[in-house]
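Summary for the steering committee. The consortium agreed at its last meeting that each partner would contribute one worked example illustrating the joint modelling workflow. Our contribution is presented below. We chose a case with several input lines so that the handling of multiple components could be demonstrated. No manual editing was applied between input and output; the record is shown as generated.
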Amino acid sequence: MTAGTGEQRDRGFDHTEVEPKWQDAWDEHGVFHVPDDAEDPAYVLAMFPYPSGEMHMGHVRNYAITDAYARYQRMRGESVLHPMGWDSFGLPAENAAMDREVDPRGWTMDCIATMKEQMELMGLGLDWDREVTTCEPEYFRWNQWFFRRFYDEGLVERKETGLNWCPSCETVLADENVTTEGGTEICWRCDTPIEHRDMEQWFFTTTDYADELHEALDRMDGWPENVREMQRNWIGHQEGDAVAFELTTGDSVEIFTTRLDTIHGATFFALSPGHPVAQDLAGEDEAVAEYVHRAEHGDREARSASEASSGDAARDEGLPQTSGVFTGEYAENPATGEEIPVYVADYVLSDIGTGALYAVPAHDERDHAFAREHDIPIRQVVEPAPDAEVDPADVDVQRAAYTEDGVLDLGEVEGSSDGRSESDGVLANSGEYDGLTSEEAREAFVDVFDGERRVERSLRDWCISRQRYWGTPIPFVECPDCGYVPVPEADLPVELPAFVRTTGNPLDAAEEWKQVECPDCGGPAERETDTMDTFVDSSWYFLRYISPGMDDAPFDTEQASDWLPVDQYVGGIEHATMHLIYSRFFTKVLADLDMLEGVREPFENLLTQGMVRKGGTAMSSSTGNVVSPRPFVEKHGADTGRLFMLEAARPEKDFDWTEEGARSAHEFLQGVYALAAEVASGAVGKVDADADRAPIDEYVAREVSATTATATEEFEAFRFNHALQAVRELVSLVRRYRDETTPDPAVVERGVETVTKLLAPVAPHVAEEMWDELGGEGLVAEADWPGADPPASYDIERRLVENTREDVRDIVDVAGIEDPEEVAIAVAPDWKHEVHEFARTSDADNLVGAVMGDERFREHGEAAADFAKDLAAEREALSETLDPAAERAALERAAWLIEREFGADVTVLAAGESAADARPGRPAIQID
RNA sequence: GCGAGGGUAGCCAAGCCUGGAAACGGCGGCGGACUCAAGAUCCGCUCCCGUAGGGGUCCGAGGGUUCGAAUCCCUUCCCUCGCACCA
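What follows is the complete predicted structure of the assembly.
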């Protein structure tokens, strides 16, 4: 439908008129501004966007969630910080600049302006006074400032290692920026397969914090388990031992193993092709040199080859898994004193452990395969424990490796009472250590072989250099005499030179900018031309929101310590191992630099929102499978979009965008607005003292309270869909009340007013309009959230009413009663209630006996015995019921619903003859 | 291979932690009210049988615990995601 048609205006509201009006009003009242002196406000944060210029539905969902929660908290009386900013450095701006003769800055600023306008269109309640833009020198100067501080603290290293290179983006990438798809490593931004290059780059030493980053995850209850698990995987955790082996080359080579217990079975030694000792040997031995070369270069071809094939694993096809070359050198097995041959083997990876290992073919499958191929002896040193399920005679290590390591399953230690230990392995052929369990042997051997117990992790230091223009210049100068020298703090920020279109890094081409004096010796020097990974920007932006204008520090320590951690963070799962690890790292470093007090984790609660799909598949601009937010909002209104998104599914789940769902949301809003307008115009009911109506009014009042309680609970738990479902039910009830009785306008008004408030966080514009119609004071955005106690015994009563209504329907239906005229409902007599309660709480063995033994009940004779028998059959399932008077009152309150449904008179009776069939919670029903 | 999360009526989807009602809600379908009619709105029904509220079957499959299991335990199958030549 077209906005603002005459037809619409008659009965509904026109969102093109209403939405800007209230946006202005919120603005004028500074509703969303948080003063600096606010005490520990609720910090509700959506991951700030990269300003691409167009919002997509994922953004809308993200912000609809945080805004609803923030608005809800505000109505609860909290001060709320709900800020927004722009993650505005990055390659797309540079690409756009190359494509269409603009400069990255201009393009970015235009995009920000458009996106901000779209956010305003959505009516998001954001504190724009705290807007943060990472590509502004006022922001990125602090990146440089942090870089220097980190450098002073020894957290910055410049080192050469094998790095990921994206040929399309023409820059190195951190490990975190590389994703694996079908065995191929690709760039997270452009999906181009990456290459490996050895380069010297700048690193933040995230590994210094690996232990804490890993261990703290266990305590982060506010995070979803899958994100924590992803981070655990990413950081890695292998407990083992490092032991040195002496080689005939004269080198002492450290290995890392989780199976030190098997050391007596080591029959060869293996180095990865990248290992320094292997590299040295390659210099002396042609065969080794050739193998190392093939291993290093086969790599790339093999990857593209395996990509073409079905591509199960990224196993090199050029080099089989068992490939390797004997170096002619030997290592001494410290356990046996034997000389074992040293191989260079491709299956040994340079970035796992130390890149060197002793191989135990008897107890490791890969070592086994290698040994078979190269005719190396296989010696068993672990066998099944005497009490293990496996017969030692069945173990043939010549045929296959026996990998049971005999680790005690902690959960099963107690279970050894069943006569069988869970420890499967004990040592054999290991001299004096025979008979020890693997675990005991490991304990012993660390000392015996002068090793070191250690935890190996897969987390690597964070490579932050990027060979791109549109980022924060790394504040260093390279002097031919002094080496790398930091730019003095007084000279910060190092700003970007004008953009030039060039292949490669534009900063390299900015000759004038590049040439500087060395801060140390004053001689000619060159600026570092790399810029920082943009994840540096996003690692602390949530701190800048706290003191956005501060110009002598990145943020105010005292205020940040009070306002952090972020109470609720909402964003996409794609940042699980990137942004969310980097931010945690930054926060810990800042805490250790005393810039934060008592805060070591930035985000208390994390919600990863699900995708918005269409027709079962993800919305994607490349396939055109999208619903564009802007046209949608212009046509149907922001509230419609927000309501639909939030009621369609729980925030963390994916959901399908459907036309029907959106339409249903729109119609609901129009309908509920119309109801408010009708109430406001005085067209509903008349003030007329009618005693009969009192129970009905009370019924509605109780439903209003119950809905409020439900909505509150659900908002609190981020289940907006459940809250909204309850609100829809209440609206439906209020309508029925209005239509079918002589309604009390005050009751209707209270219902509609409550609905307005409950809806305000989700459909804020319509809610303001309704609030205005109803004559509410001020803005509903600033109104108090309604009280939230559920009425006494509400659940029991609801069950009673629902059951009774259903029973009436059943009877009418099954008995084929055409036109019921009178429905009589009779509550069970007092004594039955007493027996029921007695049965429910009694623990007597013989319930019937116990009941009949009580003279209160005995006087009801046979009826009491029968009833007791029935109860006995289901005594464990008996649930609490209302007392007779309460039951009767509840049914009287609900009687109007039955009258309305069947057009029959309904009478609710106290117990009488007609109540013979009645039971507590199940009244007798007579229909005529 | 390791790990995490899932499998609920035609579809989407609650409930499972803290066992106790054929199992919330939405969509679709069916019937009814209102209406000249359509739309909108409202009220029901939607696993099977049943002319007074009853009975049967049911929550991926199979076992078990229990008076009682969608919920707890074990086994098994399938799906999604993350990690993975990890020494």
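DSSP finds 31 helices and 33 strands in chain A. The mean pLDDT of chain A is 87.
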